[in-house]
Write a structure and sequence with these properties.
This protein is an alpha/beta fold. The chain has two domains: 175 residues, Rossmann fold (3-Layer(aba) Sandwich); 292 residues, Metal-dependent hydrolases (TIM Barrel). The protein contains 22 helices and 16 strands. An eight-stranded parallel beta sheet has the order 7-8-9-10-11-12-13-14. Strands 2-1-3-4-5-6 form a six-stranded parallel beta sheet, sandwiched between helices. Helix 13 links the parallel strand 8 and strand 9. Helix 1 crosses helix 8, helix 3 crosses helix 4 and helix 14 packs parallel to helix 16. The longest helix is centred in the last third of the chain and has 19 residues. It is elongated. The two termini are 40 Å apart.
């Protein structure tokens, strides 16, 4: 959510509103202060109409936004809302100046009539321009709806209790913010600032990678496509980047795949809370050659999913067990057989993120293969192991007997797992996937004695368990993006399995040729 800030009339508010911005900034995607013209010209009185037009222009380019306003700034907001020129999600009004507005012939009584925008009002008990009791009566008389009031003991109109104001405001905003204040912009900015260690890894791995790369596992959608991040999703790593646009992806490419010819298979984050239909349309309208799109299907809307597949505009189909709450534990719950039948008939591959570790749902996967023998399946994340686990080799051996089953390498940092997968499936059925932008998270995998495979971070992302972090954070000291260990694992596996002359051929297959063939990039 974006925040627009308006101060009071006097020029002293110019510095005050900057202080407010500083304490609130960490909780919003972006902030913008409306600087009044009369502050620059040293005129004593604000020009409400001029500032109203400026506010309208700012709001037009702000998407979903919240407004913070003090005193005279409140009058600008009220007038602009009254004239139906802006529609903020919520407002925060600090120090409503009833007496001052009336003394200066500002029609606050009319503008507040039947006012219904969800608003937090903060007022001193004895504010000289309206005591808290006077204000309470006024709002009742004007039939103002959807308003919460916080009263602070005080006799001035200054409102310098910044910490208290922040606490009131953040509590109010987080209650209404369906994205729970997740600041993906901040996370991305931090991720794109490479450490010295990451710079060294980048040079080493870019020198090793082939020039032509197909990344068959990337996510992309706008923040505005996310309707809600529920409590469970909030505490998972997948919620790190609730918005990651095509433009963000291009910026990332310039850093992580510098001077490489990169093609991507793009699809939305498929977790619950995403407006899947809108995101599919966003990708259809904006993805350009040479990239391709995987349809994100909707398990509960079989007709929609089939009709979209039948357009012929998609090179793959992705569906996800966490579109349900609780998450599905059966493949056919989130990949309904009716949809798989159409995908098989149209020769459209599916990207299957298994509901559980491949070793524990092997039989279910084999049933799908039996029911749909001609269905092309890409198992995401090599079937989910981040390290060698019991029965993995035997499971891989059995699954590999079916030639339509391929696997992608997304976010697997284990040389052992990569070596096993390439050795058993062969280098022509393993495809590079980055899991962009989740690969930008800085973390390491470790074995928790009670919880099994876990990741620990040095950076305190919103989803990090604080108690677990405190206990195991030393594991993450100097952690790099997950992108680099995943590439290192592929490199180590290839170099351990093949002689130097063969390595280039294998690299070209894993990083380009296999996905080009499987997902029909040509």
């Amino acid at each position: 959510m974006r925040l627009i800030l308006l101060g009071g009339n006097g020029v002293v508010n110019k510095e005050w509103i900057k202080k407010i911005e500083r304490v609130l900034k960490p909780n919003f995607v972006s902030t913008k202060i409306l600087n009044y013209d009369h502050w620059q010209t040293n005129q004593p009185m604000i020009d409400l109409d001029k500032e109203k037009e400026k506010l309208t222009k700012i709001a037009k380019n702000s998407g979903n936004f919240v407004i913070f306003a003090k005193s005279a700034g409140i009058l600008i907001v009220l007038k602009t809302i009254f004239e139906n020129k802006i529609s903020p999600k919520k407002c925060i009004f600090v120090g409503i100046p009833l007496k001052w507005a009336r003394e200066n012939n500002f029609d606050i009584d009319t503008w507040f009539n039947n006012y219904s925008t969800s608003t937090l009002v903060i007022q001193h008990t004895k504010d000289p321009f309206a005591s808290s009791e006077e204000l309470k009566q006024f709002l009742s008389d004007k039939n103002v709806k959807n308003t919460e009031t916080e009263v602070i003991s005080g006799e001035s109109h200054d409102y310098n209790e910044l910490e208290l104001l922040r606490d009131f405001i953040i509590g109010f905003v987080e209650m209404m913010d369906p994205l729970r204040g997740i600041d993906s912009t901040k996370y991305l900015k931090d991720s794109l600032d490479l450490t010295e260690k990451e710079e060294c890894l980048s040079k080493e791995l870019l020198d090793w990678l082939p020039n032509e790369i197909v990344d068959c596992h990337t996510h992309c959608n706008l923040r505005d496509h996310v309707q809600e991040v529920d409590e469970k999703m909030y505490h998972q790593m997948i919620s790190t980047f609730v918005g990651f646009s095509l433009e963000d992806s291009y910026r990332t490419e310039g850093i992580f795949f510098k001077n490489k010819h990169l093609k991507r298979l793009r699809f939305p984050f498929p977790f619950r809370g995403i407006d899947i239909k809108t995101t599919n349309e966003y990708l259809l309208s904006n993805v350009k050659e040479p990239d391709r799109i995987a349809l994100c299907g909707i398990p509960s809307d079989i007709n929609y999913t089939i009709s979209m597949l039948e357009t012929g505009k998609f090179n793959a189909l992705k569906m996800y067990h966490q579109q349900f709450n609780p998450p599905s534990e059966q493949i056919y719950e989130y990949f309904p057989p009716e949809i798989l039948g159409v995908a098989e008939k149209m020769e459209i591959p599916i990207i299957l993120h298994l509901p559980k570790m491949i070793t524990t749902c092997k039989e279910e996967l084999l049933d799908v293969i039996k029911d749909f023998p001609n269905l092309k399946i890409s198992l995401a994340h090599l079937g989910l192991p981040h390290s060698i686990i019991p029965d993995l080799a035997e499971t891989y051996e059995e699954i590999s007997k079916h030639p339509n089953i391929y696997m992608d390498t997304a976010m697997v940092p284990s040389r052992g797992v990569l070596t096993m997968a390439i050795r058993i499936f062969g280098p022509k059925r393993i495809m590079f996937g980055s899991d962009e932008p989740i690969n930008l998270v800085r973390s390491v995998v470790y074995q928790n004695p009670k919880l099994g495979q876990r990741i620990v971070t040095e950076y305190m992302y919103h989803w990090v368990n604080k108690k677990e972090h405190e206990k195991y954070k030393e594991h993450a000291k100097g952690a790099t993006h997950m992108h680099w260990p995943a590439l290192q694992a592929i490199k180590a596996a290839v170099e351990s399995l093949y002689m130097p002359k063969k390595q280039q051929v294998v690299k070209n297959d894993i990083f380009c040729n296999n996905a080009t063939r499987f997902f029909k990039f040509v």
